[in-house]
Request: fold
Amino acid sequence: MSENKLRAYWKENLRYLAILLVIWFIVSYGFGILLIDQLNSMSIGGAKLGFWFAQQGSIYVFVVLIFVYVYLMNKLDQKYGLDES
Amino acid sequence: MSVLTWTYIIVGITFALYIGIAIWSRAGSTQEFYVAGGGVSPLANGMATAADWMSAASFISMAGLISFMGYDGGVYLMGWTGGYVLLALLLAPYLRKFGKFTVPDFIGDRYYSNVARTVAVICAIIVSFTYVAGQMRGVGVVFSRFLEVDINTGVYIGMAIVLFYAVLGGMKGITYTQVAQYCVLIFAYMVPAFFISLAMTGNVVPQLGLLGNVTDGSEMALLDKLDQLHRELGFAEYTSGTKSMTDIFCITMALMVGTAGLPHVIVRFFTVPKVRDARISAGYALLFIAILYTTAPAIAAFARTNLINTVSNKEYASMPEWFTKWETTKLITHDDKNNDGLIQYVADPNTNELTIDQDIMVLANPEIAGLPNWVIALVAAGGLAAALSTAAGLLLVISTAVSRDLIKMQLKPDISERNELIAARLGATVAVVIAGYFGINPPDFVAATVALAFGLAAASFFPAIILGIFDKRMNREGAITGMVVGISIMLFYMLKFKLGKFGGGTAEDWWFGISPEGFGTVAMMINLVISMVVSRVTAAPPQEVQDIVEDIRIPSGAGDAVAH
Reply:
């Protein structure tokens, strides 16, 4: 495996991490805490939206984020021939 | 059959199951003892991680806590789940590729220093002991309430069980017992939740029931109804909370980062065969945890509404049976201050007549909802499964820290495999005995510091591990200074504002208005900054260490977790 290829692999990995962690931050710290007042003017079912994100919504997104990460990384490993047999 | 008979039957069956698994999966080598031979399937590891992680506090206390905190309770829900995203993305795959047995292993090798290793061992032991004492106490409380034995007897029984499967099976025994314990605890948590959600909202799924309308004919949304009740009684609105935004932010961050830094959680990802297994098993773990964590806020809101409707301005003499039953345990107390025979449950402490312990919310829930006796017995078995699984995981970290990180790696490197295994088992035995002692004689500081174990983990381990993976230039000097300063400043803040040392202080004196629970975030930031600065003015790490960093960034070729 050449040095350049490994560097490219690592760079793509970091890009995925950055995107996923930004979403992670927005749904919990953004929607559940910092923007709570704005979001609470909307509702989902019988709950205020900000409250729902703080107690339920963010957790669903967390689960999805990890599975998306696993999917992306498995594909990336394959692309660079780094997947384990 | 009575509740007591049911409890004996169900708890007896589950205990027999745990012991059977322990005998079937006993460990023959140090590799099996430390990391279950590195051959656990990702799905089993996900369940074991979930049981390892969800303690007596998650099972018994959390819904009650949220019930009394309302919106503010979100810090626990987000904090204790969001950490798994960090774990899955930033730690688990790389540490699995690194392929050793413990967190101090990584710190010691990555920072080419036994000083760093020792600092990590001390941090791991402090964090794990503060945590485990609370678990043994939890076992005692459940035993005394449901099996009507003395709390101390309950602790002894719990010690004997944990001792048996942790000492015999090591990580292998613990892993497969935890899989069984996860099944028991999630079943025990969900069954009453389904019943109560159906009764309160007409929807059997509690996660959806929380968004639904109450079934009392008013067609009101459950949460609006709860807000209205709170306003009438002078409490802050349930969906608004009382903590400052800064504090909520910091507590959530400290819990998330602390979760990702807890040694007994991290070590679980050493037990799977490959890097890709480590990634997916973090996903499974969070999925299994999320089932309980998204149910908890629903139970919290149902229980709160139910409670206020049942007691507020009702005659004391007409209270249902569960009320008087829990009164005898002193977890509910009523003081008829104005002698009108009614219960005034209000925010103002001068006229409020009712105090309720948060732990009741989950434990008494089946009784409040009038569920059959076997469901009540199931909750007891679930609480025990939660407490025992977490205690066993923590004890293993402590025994490994002694037998491997201290004896094998530092004091006596030529120790034979057989003797190392004996040392590990002795270490586990001593740890169980000490934990049991704290369970029977709980020192005041335990209750105050369990929540702060997260702050300590956040302030010490997290930056050192993250920088070790993502910053190739990070060196010994930077990491050690960062860890020592981080954990010291966290301990100082804890001792000052929680235990009144160093002149003490009240909420007005908090730095930047941040509570001790949230201070782990600040301490972590200080650790990060100091590590970066110190590492840049001292020598770069040697070439072979930089090669290790290159190597752990690539998933292929992880192989078995190696001993040497």
User: Anything to note?
Assistant: The radius of gyration of chain B is 24 Å.
